[in-house]
Amino acid sequence: MSQLFAFQWHITDTCDQRCKHCYIFAENTNKSITSMTFEQMKMVIDNCIDFCNKFNRQPYFYITGGDPILHKNFWVLLEIVKEKNIEFTILGNPFHLTDEVCKNLKSYGCEQYQMSLDGLKQTHDWFRKNGSFDTTLEKIKCIKNAGINSAIMATVSEKNINEIVGLIDVVVKYKVDTFAFARYCATSLEKDINIEPLQYRIFLDKCYKKFQQYKDSGTFFDFKDHLWTLYLYENGLFEIPKDAQEGMIYDGCNCGNSHITICSNGDLLACRRFNSKVGNVFENKIANVWLNEMEQYRNYDKFEKCSKCELLAYCRGCPAVAYGKTHNFYSADPQCWKQC
Known about the structure:
By secondary structure, this protein is an alpha/beta fold. The protein has ten helices and ten strands. The protein has helices at about 40-55, 75-85, 100-105, 120-125, 130-145, 165-175, 195-215, 225-235, 285-290, 320-325, and strands at about 5-10, 55-65, 85-90, 110-115, 150-155, 180-185, 220, 260, 265-270, 275-280. Strands 7-6-5-4-3-2-1-8-9-10 form a ten-stranded mixed sheet. Helix 1 links the parallel strand 1 (about 5-10) and strand 2 (about 55-65). Helix 1 (about 40-55) runs parallel beside helix 2 (about 75-85) and helix 6 (about 165-175) packs parallel to helix 7.
């Protein structure tokens, strides 16, 4: 079976929220709201399929925005995706979900619907908008009743790091299928998530103990942040395979390996979480971009710290977080506590 290749596809910037940590409107650039036309979306699908055919991969779409449901051609797009037999997840908001909407999503093949909770009620609503926390919790049941996997994602920063352990209790209570978190990626040199390395390790330890408490709850805890690999390694919960081949990359950051982002204006990004334009989907073949412009993100010996670490092939921290602090993709992850 061919490996999946993930396309994070922003079909529109239209959204009911203006989250304080949104990458689309970062830096107060007064960016105009853009959405792909129906013809452009068909071009994207053809370009993605062309790429996958050339590299023997299976496309997987993470359809998002903005809120993708607000795109006027959202449902027509899903018809084409279903016709092409492409698996997909929706990354969206809770505000326009109903039993009927979720039932329709399932009929088109939606495997998972991911929403966000960025802390407990007061903090989350401060990040997003009043009422967002309660509405998100309310719609979990709606998603699950339709037979779609419900996922909650949290973005961790100094503002909410002390609330994430409590948030784990909440998602288990509401029977969320999958829970994960990743760190906020600062969008300029003037910003930092202000979390010290050992502070982050202690945080991961608290979360892991909570995960163990709920290991039979039915909620799957996704170790999305790659520093989990370091934590598990140090605690004897991850071992480097004895048959590992030198020079191979087995896990860790997907940038340059199995993921690319497509923005609503067609720009191709190596990663959505930092300034990494490598082309435009309407002007360039993704296959050509992958072999050329994307190569700069596969120079693994350039990692200033990770290249000296035995976990290079499995971790590499989060280069986007590193970029947010230093504007250098290959600089050390600012929350990595390992001495190399």
